[in-house]
Amino acid sequence: MKFLQMFCLLFCFSLTSISQTLEEPMVQTDIISKSYSQQWELDSIHKKGTFRLVSHKPIYITAGRWSSNPNEKPYSENPEYSATEAQDFNRYEAKLQLSFKTKLLQGLFWGKADVWLAYTQRAYWQIYNKDLSRAFRELNYEPELIFVYPLKIKAFGGYFRSTGVSVNHESNGRDFPLSRSWNRIIFHLGYENENWIVSINPWIRSADTDDENPAITKFIGNGEVNVGYSYNRHEFYTIIRHPFDRIKGGSIQLNYVFPMKGHLRGHFQFFHGYGETLVDYNHSQTTLGIGISFANW
Fold first, then answer.
1. How many folded domains does the chain comprise?
2. Is-catalytic flag, 82?
3. Residue-range definition of the domain harbouring residue 96
4. Region at 33 (left for phi over 0; alpha for psi -120 to 50; beta for the rest)
5. Angle at CA 5, nearest 5°, toward 23 and 164?
6. Has 180 been labeled as part of a binding site?
């Protein structure tokens, strides 16, 4: 809890400074069409100072999302954190993801490295379920502190552009027995080749005294790979997770973002595997969603 409180305080502090330092729109509307260097301000010409609020992970609203196997009775390998009664969830719901970051420190280590504070929130809303008063089924909160060091190493026709590490906390803020959380040290290596962006992110899970989800890495995985590609305002990105020590587990998320009218863009999302939400970390399902996208990788 102290970990989460520290990040929330830092994040609130950054928000109080934004009104004085914000020079551009809060949301970047063409993330993949921007270079990887621009996204993370890796080159000196892209440095824009501290405490500006910009998008981090994709931002979207999926009004229609279908699940092949709703998790009506979540369980944990720790029996104290298993549901005792099933909930009658609809197969259809809405999903929202908001994600922002702000730079806390700029120009460390020979004037090159930066430190960012980021926050991502995902919401799964049973908006079509009258019997459950259209309640939110699950909310996931993910603050993280990110250290980024720029690179420019030529390889495979492109460049490795950054490396770094982040301290990451993710939780669902729910009461016992459906509370879920974990802390991670996440490493990253970013690669760019024209319209392609690839990020490799292995992680190490920190030990928890009272473990609410003991086997979370066996199901969600020990790392993820993000791959993004843009072509004539059409954008594709995928997120792949998998455990290193077993065949079963992991997930794949495929996204297609397409122009509709003006700056309005549609978003199609496919997911298959474990851990679409924290409470679903050991539950496998396939989901399809359609909605509106505001910012992407």
1. 1
2. no
3. 2-295
4. alpha
5. 60
6. no
Annotated active-site residue 169? The verdict is yes
What distance in Å separates the CA atoms of residue 294 and residue 197, rounded to the nearest whole number? 19
- What pTM value is reported for the model? 0.87
- The verdict on whether residue 122 carries a ligand-binding annotation is no
CATH number (domain holding residue 35): 2.40.230.10
pLDDT tens over the chain, length 297 residues = 444 444 444 444 444 433 333 334 433 334 444 688 899 999 988 899 999 999 999 999 999 999 999 999 999 999 999 999 999 999 999 999 999 999 999 999 999 999 999 999 999 999 999 999 999 999 999 999 999 999 999 999 999 999 999 999 999 999 999 999 999 999 999 999 999 999 999 999 998 888 999 999 999 999 999 999 999 889 999 999 999 888 889 999 999 999 998 889 999 999 999 999 999 999 999 999 999 999 877
Residue of 56, 76, 166, 169 marked catalytic: 169
Nearest to 93 by CA among 285, 294, 296, 259: 285
